[in-house]
Structures are given as C-alpha cells and as structure tokens.
Design a protein that fits this description.
alpha+beta; Archaeosine Trna-guanine Transglycosylase, Chain: A, domain 4; globular; Pseudouridine synthase; about 20% helix
C-alpha cells in the first residue's frame, strides 16, 4: 500500500457510506487496527470495524466490515478459527511469543518423541489461563496495561474448545502445528501448554490465521494488493453483510412481511416456520437482517439493516 512521501501532507479523504465485508491478509508487524485503518482509507469507508484481532507478530486473515456490516460482525467473533504456526522449545517468554524476554528455560525433548499424546491431550474441551499480555479486561482495564505497570493480577482459568490439532516436528527444537479452535482460545497459551506437556518450555515463533468461520485466507488480499487495484476492482472484493451470520438458517420473506420487518415491526409469517433466529431476506434477495420466529407465525426483528444491502453503495461527505 503506497505511503505519502515523508513530511508530505496526507491527502484529505472524502468519506463515503460503504457497506460490505473485505477479507484482508494482514502482514507481519502491522497491528490489526493499522491494517483496518489503511484498508478503510482505500475504500473511503465512513464506518469500519474488524471481526477478531490479530497480534502484530501474527499474519493472516482479518475480516474487515464496513458500514451496515459492522452490525453483524459479532456473529463471526464466535466462530471457529483456523491457524498454522510453530512453537520454539527450550524457552518461555513473558509474552508467549518472540517479542518478550525469556523468563524460563527448560531442556528440549528428543525430537523422536511421539506427539500423538499431546494432540489427544489438547483436543476437545480444555482449560486455559489467558496470557497476561492480552486485551482481556480485568476490572475494566486490559491485562497488557496492568502487566506493563508490573501489577500482579489473578487471572481465572477458562474453558475453550480445540476441534482439531496436528503437531509435527519441524526441527529438533521446533514443532509446527495446525489448529482449529473455538472462540476465546489463546494460541500463545496453547503453545506454552503443549511445550509444558512435553516436559519443556516454549513460545510461538510463527502464527498465521488461515480461516475464520466460512472465510479462508486463500480468498484474502493484502493491503498492498488492495492498494494496487482501481476502485472497481476493490469494490469487486466486497462481500455482502448477509454472509456474516452464516450459521443461521435463511428465511425468505415476501414483500409485505419484509416491509414490516424492515420498519422494525413484528412480521406475520408462515406458522410452520420453526422457532429460532434466521438470516432474513426480502424480495430480490435483499438482506434485511436477523429475525427471531416464535414458531407460531410471528417474526420479531433482532438486528436489522438500514436501507437494504447494496454492497459498495456510497453517499459522499467530507470528514
């Protein structure tokens, strides 16, 4: 992504109302917010957010939402995530990755050690203690801020789910991994715990998010790639906001109930529609939002779009 010359004033952006989802391949050493703001500027999107932070030393899939799509990003935060990476054995660091200072050393196990027991031990529902250098809040403050102040904080264990884990020896002192996990899983902690299980200490030296919910890194673009596109090509990378609540079944409504729901009213629907939440679409496959059926012919609004789902729709305005 091209940057202005040093000392040159940044050109004024005319922000527009863009709605949609773009899959970004975040590069190394760029913060999630830095990637978000750079891509937001390319699209000139007035409102933007992302569905799941990546550490600066991690790369990979960052799902960026613009405009009305930000209303539905929470559905993706709860989705399964997929990662690949590597654990360096022999030393644990303060941050759980290469950024922190070494706080513990331990012998490295024989690289012929069978890793299958570790795979079994860390698959399914496991307990983790979140790392002190994390954005998890305690008493209203992120843990990393408390850690930088040197404050001792008691961090409660939590249950997380590991759906799939593959471990292979990459070098005599390094293990590569692939993992699919539920929301709330800390991969840095997982790396430390695997190393401890093997009788050693460890920290992450590489981490890449390869998937989030239905989205895959193969379909993502780097900020530089997006920056090299013209406006038409960039707009073609936008996905509709209806893709975010992907786990919910689809409910298509005819014109009258679609209009009622769109105005925030409870809509009369077919009484055979089962109770539960739905991704609701009106005529022309316009995404209306999320609605909840009571199972007796009534659909109440839960989270609605404002003015349809036109991806890339713009309305000029200066910031």
């Amino acid at each position: 992504m091209a940057s202005p010359e040093p000392g040159a004033p940044r050109p004024k952006v005319v922000w527009t109302d863009v709605t949609g989802v773009v899959l970004v391949d975040k590069p190394l050493e760029l913060s999630s917010n830095g990637a978000l703001q750079g891509v937001r500027r390319l699209y000139r999107a007035r409102k933007a957010g992302h569905a799941g932070t990546l550490d600066p030393l991690a790369t990979g899939l960052l799902v960026v939402c613009f405009g009305e799509a930000t209303k539905f990003s929470g559905y993706l935060l709860e989705s399964h995530k997929r990662y690949v990476g590597a654990i360096q054995l022999g030393a644990r660091t303060a941050t759980g990755d290469v950024e922190g200072e070494v706080v513990e050393t331990a012998p490295v196990p024989d690289s012929l050690v069978d890793l299958a027991p570790a795979e079994r031990a860390f698959t399914g529902t496991i307990r983790q203690t979140p790392p002190i250098y994390s954005a998890l809040k305690v008493q209203g403050q992120p843990l990393y801020k408390l850690a930088r102040k040197g404050q001792d904080v008691e961090i409660a264990e939590r249950e997380v789910v590991i759906h799939r884990l593959l471990l292979v020896w990459e070098a005599p002192d390094r293990i590569a991994f692939e993992v699919e996990c539920g929301s709330g899983t800390y991969i840095r902690t997982l790396g430390e715990d695997i190393a401890r299980f093997l009788g050693s200490a460890g920290h992450l030296v590489r981490l890449r998010r390869t998937g989030s919910g239905p989205f895959d890194i193969a379909d993502a673009s780097t900020p530089d790639q997006l920056g090299g596109m013209d406006d038409e090509a960039r707009a073609a990378r936008l996905l509709p906001p209806g893709c975010l609540p992907y786990r919910l079944p689809v409910l298509n409504l005819p014109e009258e109930p679609a209009r009622d729901l769109g105005f925030g009213r409870t809509a009369e629907i077919n009484a055979r529609v089962s109770a539960g939440r739905y991704r609701v679409f009106g005529p022309g496959e316009h995404f209306l939002g999320v609605g909840e059926s009571d199972g007796t012919g009534h659909l109440r609004p839960v989270r609605l779009m404002s003015g349809g789902d036109a991806v890339g729709a713009e309305r000029d305005g200066e910031a």
